[in-house]
Design brief:
This protein is of the alpha/beta class. The protein has five helices and 14 strands.
């Protein structure tokens, strides 16, 4: 499936149907009076949140218009309402104003349905204008026009943990080793051009891991691929920061990524971080030890050592990552819980 995390679309809710000008016509009834029905309501534009991780459906179709309400008819018949247009978007999608700054909707719950643009109200038929002084009104309303606007759809992937690091830090190899995701893997920077999601199964538990394209210095300003994909990190609960053990300046690599997270904002720098040296199979233990010591001194965190190629240190790291992922709050016990058979003090 092709990945797309941003799309511009045009939306228009349906216009209301026009009211009818009609008069009752029956044999032997000379002045039957007005019987024009009201127009129907225009269709709404509705967003529905579904499970998914791409906006590719909106690359080839950009215009969505709900049906107009049907016109009213004689014999006091009201026109039918226009059909709604339901746009199904993946969880984590934001609806953004055409200015690309104002967030209009943030859709983060699967199954959520939101009426974004309401259809126009149908016009009143001439029956509505009958009065004691005007028994035969020849007036009816046209329907109210629907709403219309251009908006941007922007997807921020929903994941429990996100992989961050410099290009070629071993993130793709890591996610392919612990999940069924199969990203492109090669020995050159920027192999990963789009985010990838994978599910990690550990004992009886599972969590979603996101592989984010590599960040470089200046990513928060749009340099490289970083600025576009830092938004995906916002949704992650925990960050797994991978550093290539083969780098001479591992501390410098750590500082670069931490600085970009801080400058980007969005509370990224405040997220819980698990730190690991990757590609441990490429060095001897005595070569890795000084880097571990320097990183722990710089970060104040425990540094894990892993090799996705040999699976060395993978399980302890995944368990540490799972332990840092916030658990959903347990539901409060109901006051009417049948299992609670304790009696009040005065009845005990």
């Amino acid at each position: 499936m092709q990945f797309l995390d941003e799309a511009k679309i045009f939306l228009k809710s349906g216009d209301g149907g026009a009211g009818s000008i009609s008069f009752r016509r029956e044999k032997f009834i000379e002045f039957g009076g007005p019987d024009g029905g009201d127009g129907g309501r225009g269709g709404d534009i509705i967003f529905e949140v579904v499970d998914g991780n791409t906006l590719i459906d909106y690359r080839y179709q950009q215009h969505f218009k709900a049906q107009k309400g049907h016109h009213g008819m004689g014999r006091n018949r009201t026109g039918g309402d226009g059909n709604d247009v339901v746009l199904r978007v993946p969880v984590g999608t934001q609806i953004i104003h055409e200015d690309r700054k104002t967030v209009l909707l943030d859709l983060t719950t699967i199954g959520e349905r939101v009426v974004f643009l309401k259809g126009g109200i149908g016009g009143r038929g001439n029956t509505r204008f009958k009065s004691s002084t005007n028994q035969a009104p020849r007036r009816a309303d046209t329907g109210m026009p629907g709403e219309e606007m251009w908006v941007w759809l922007r997807l921020k992937l929903m994941a429990d943990a996100g992989l961050v690091g410099l290009p070629n830090a071993g993130k793709s190899t890591f996610i392919s080793a612990c999940t069924r995701a199969r990203p492109k893997i090669a020995d050159y920077p920027f192999t990963t051009l789009v985010p990838k999601l994978g599910v990690v199964y550990l004992d009886t538990q599972e969590f979603v891991l996101a592989d984010i394209p590599g960040l470089i210095e200046g990513a928060h300003q749009g340099i490289g691929l970083g600025h576009k994909f830092l938004g995906h990190v916002e949704r992650c609960r925990v960050l797994l920061h991978l550093i290539d053990a083969g780098l001479e300046d591992a501390v410098g690599a750590y500082r670069t990524i931490r600085n970009e997270l801080t400058l980007y904002g969005g509370h990224l720098a405040e997220k819980t971080e698990v730190l690991a040296l990757s590609k441990a199979d490429t060095l001897f233990e005595d070569e890795i030890a000084p880097k571990i010591e320097a990183l722990e001194k710089e970060s104040g965190k425990k540094v894990f050592v892993v090799s996705a190629a040999t699976h060395e240190g993978m399980e302890p790291l995944l368990r540490a990552l799972l332990a840092e992922i916030p658990k959903p709050a347990a539901p409060h016990a109901s006051l009417d819980d049948p299992e609670d058979e304790s009696l009040p003090d005065d009845e005990a």
